[in-house]
Amino acid sequence: MLASLKAHVPNALTVGNLLCGMGGIYLALAEADTYAAGWCIIMAALLDVADGAVARALGVSSPIGKDLDSLADAVTFGVLPTFIVITGLRQYLWLNPAWQIVPACLGVCAVLRLARFNNDPGQAKYFSGLPTPAAGLALVGIGFQIDKLPDAAMPLVQPAGLLMVAVLLAGLMVSPLRLISFKLGLKPTLPYWVATALVAIASLPWAQGGATLVAILAYVAFSQIYFLRKPAPTA
After folding, report:
1. Domain that residue 150 falls in
2. Cα 5 to Cα 8, 10, 11, 69, 114, distances in angstroms
3. Which three-class secondary structure state does DSSP give residue 234?
4. DSSP code of 233?
5. How confident is the model at residue 211 (pLDDT cuts 50, 70, 90)?
6. Is residue 195 part of a domain?
7. CA 103 to chain CA mean position, Å
8. What is the pTM of this model?
9. What's the rounded Cα separation, in Å, for the pair 8 and 201?
10. Residue 138 in contact with residue 212, Cβ under 8 Å?
11. In the chain, how many domains are there?
12. Which pLDDT does position 195 carry in this prediction?
């Protein structure tokens, strides 16, 4: 009985991730509250990390848990960011509504990226393409700024900026770029994580809400430096 309950603990955390995504979608669409929706992404990211850590600590895993995790990530880090961008675009009444179709690339590419991840044994040690949680987190700061419109003058929350960020993140998710993972080991990758954190902190005064995007782009850049210095590991 205890073993059966233990097996469901990680899945319960994954469901929490999914609920954060669903709540965030409601907040972005029904309430136009992208600030609260951004916090939903942050809470979901913490739960996403926790479910894997708990599963490893308890020694439990299952194909259902893996699929559930991907489905939750698709909603929280793919669909929710799509609607955060759409909410930002809707505040510009002069903008042609047809442009609201463009952010859908975030949700579509998130699903494609997760499907590839689940069926690619080569990603056991590193990521191929930007992980969907990272793409979602990249939009958190921008979502915080969208909530300040029309006072916010930040270029990234203007229509062109929002559309470019959506297309950029979507493209990175389905790209073949190799990105470092903690599965490579903390010691060899620590300098690159530290460098990413320092760039993110240094960007806060001038990037404002774009600091989370800067952090993710720094992560992508430093990952390329890592793999230029070291060959990609085999699964």
Report:
1. 2-178
2. 5, 10, 10, 18, 27
3. coil
4. P
5. very high
6. no
7. 14
8. 0.92
9. 37
10. yes
11. 1
12. 96
pLDDT digits over 23-53, tens only? 999 999 999 999 999 999 999 999 999 988 8
Question: Between vectors from CA 195 to CA 189 and to CA 197, what angle results, nearest 5°?
Answer: 105
- Which single residue is written with the structure tokens 């895993």? 61
d(CA 24, CA 82): 11
Maximum pairwise Cα distance, the chain: 60
Cis peptide before 103 (omega within 30 of 0): no
Structure-token pair, residue 134: 């990272």
Within-domain flag for 56: yes
Q: Say if residue 135 is exposed, middle or buried (CB neighbours under 10 Å; 0-12, 13-18, 19+).
A: buried
**Residue 166 vs residue 124, higher pLDDT:** 166
**Is the per-residue pLDDT at 1 higher than 60?**
no
Q: What are phi and psi of 86, to 5 degrees?
A: -60, -40
Cβ neighbour number for residue 181 with a 10 Å cutoff: 16
Quickly list H helices, 31-94: 34-58, 63-74, 80-90
**Which DSSP letter does residue 152 get?**
-
The CATH number that applies at residue 110 is 1.20.120.1760
